Amino acid sequence: MAQKPNQRGATRQSIKATKHNWPTRTVFNPGKYFRQHQATFIESFMRLVNYPLSSVMTVMVIAIALSLPGGLYVLLKNVQSVTDQWEQQSVITLYLFSDLEDTQALALSHRISAQPDVASVEYISKEEGLRYFESSSGYEQILSSLPENPLPIVLRVIPKEVVDIATISNLQALRDQLASQKEVEHAELDAQWLQRLANILSFGQRFVYALSVLLVVAVLLIVGNTIRMSVESRRDEVLVMKLVGATDSYIRRPFLYMGFWFGVLGGFFASLCILLLSWWVSAPAERLIESYQSGFQLQTFNADEIVLCLTISAFVGVFGAWIAVNRHIATIELQ
Amino acid sequence: MEIEFQRVGKKYESGQEALSQVDFHLQQGEMAFLTGHSGAGKSTLMKLMMMIERQTSGQILVDGVDLRTLSRRAIPQHRRRVGVVFQNHQLLFDRSVFHNVALPLQVSGADSEQIAKRVRAALDKVGLLDKEKYNPMALSGGEQQRVGIARAVVNKPQLLLADEPTGNLDPRLSAEIMNLFQEFNRVGVTVLVASHDLALVARMRHRVLTLNQGRMVNDGGFG
Lengths: 335, 223
Hints:
The complex is a heterodimer of chains A (335) and B (223). With 335 residues, chain A is α+β, with helices and mostly antiparallel strands. Chain A has two domains: 35-84 and 197-329, no CATH class; 92-190, Alpha-Beta Plaits (2-Layer Sandwich). In chain A, 69% of the residues lie in helices and 7% in strands. Chain A is built from eleven helices and four strands; from the N terminus they run αααβαβααβαβαααα. Chain A has helices spanning 5-20, 30-50, 52-83, 102-113, 126-137, 140-145, 168-179, 192-233, 235-243, 248-290, 303-329; strands spanning 92-96, 118-124, 154-159, 184-189. Chain A has a four-stranded antiparallel beta sheet. In chain A, helix 2 (30-50) packs across helix 10 (248-290), helix 3 (52-83) runs antiparallel to helix 8 and helix 10 (248-290) packs antiparallel against helix 11. Chain B folds into two domains: 1-81 and 159-223, P-loop containing nucleotide triphosphate hydrolases (Rossmann fold); 93-156, no CATH class. A six-stranded mixed beta sheet of chain B has the order 6-7-8-3-9-10, sandwiched between helices. In chain B, strands 2-1-4-5 form a four-stranded antiparallel beta sheet, covered by helices on one side. Chain B is of the alpha/beta class and 223 residues long. Chain B is globular. Chain B is built from seven helices and ten strands. The chains are: A alpha+beta (335), B alpha/beta (223). The interface between A and B is medium-sized, with 27 and 29 residues. Chain B: Belongs to the ABC transporter superfamily.
């Protein structure tokens, strides 16, 4: 035996490994892996079917929790699709200081009309303003009783850009810029209602997001709790499986699939709820909107959104199950 | 499978010393009984072999490999090579006899054809082939015990451990169960049976290991 000690050691070790066929870790075998997953996939579904009452309750709670933000999302989507088409040729009205001379006002008017984002400026002198008032308002008597014309010079600035709900902020910048001129006492953008609508919509959007997050967390807790109880009720089975050599991932797997099924079924029924609800309100909603605008088509959950809903709910289901299983399987040990 | 205990001790965190300085060597293909009063350490010894517990001193060699060198992830692989009949991990009553016996095969990823073949072979050996569709609840105590044995051997283990397998069975059934273990031993399986039924153990004429308060007080003889 002229071998060096370290070589001899290595040889002995390899002999030991082959002689005793002593696997210290699972060798990955795709066929076996797929087979086990397929079996668990079906078994975990059958387990839900075998406990119909509790399964249906859990699935429906998840479905309701998900259909709430989903439904609001559809509502928001419709409001947006309607309002997105509303364009407005808006006007910024500048009320100049009443002690301003006509020449100064004209100079300002020229300056503003030279701006690249301004289409035109209409100059309304004090007299024109008074005539307009007299002809249209029925204030003649009050106006004629006044010692002098109280109206200021007014510039009506027509911006080049036609705005919709998304670009309204561009006009506000223009209004602010014009309001900062020293001759201008007050500037008003008459697209205010568009702005208000934009504010309401962005408020609605945030509300839906926040609600979605809350309800997704709720679904996580529901799934987690259901899985926890399921683990507890299968305690004996978990122990026997550990005894006969089940790996941790093998023991976890049916519970993760259970979470998957809860999530997918919950998402499916949530989508169904939303589709039914959209169908139910579609006739009156379309009549309502058509009175304002032609060619309106009520939007509902489309295929992409259904897939997204199912994906999110499946993911949430698996994640909720994963948290519960990791916490509770560790507490079940052979003794 | 060859088992060697070298000065093995197990002290629980409570301070209780379940085993101390236990030495014995079980040859490949040997059959032995483990006796002793309850609390003498029989169950602890079996749990160490299953890696349910870890010893606090000494070495346990299984086929020459020190169990302490195995990682947590290797435990399932080890358990698949050992068949066990434990009192407190009995059958699952939510499934048939067939599916109880199939469990170790499912766990190790056998395909359904193989599972059916091996489960039936195991049930045939214990004489319960005609009861595969029954719920174990509907079987007698002796039959349930035999289902447990079928489950322990279905994976063709190299070592069979049984903890009080005849616990509450009448003498005739107990003898039947012991004969079953003997049959498995005859085909090369190493068998270790813990039992306090000294009369029965003596009749079997195999090596007897006796524990008393965690110490091996007798090794050899026929009890």
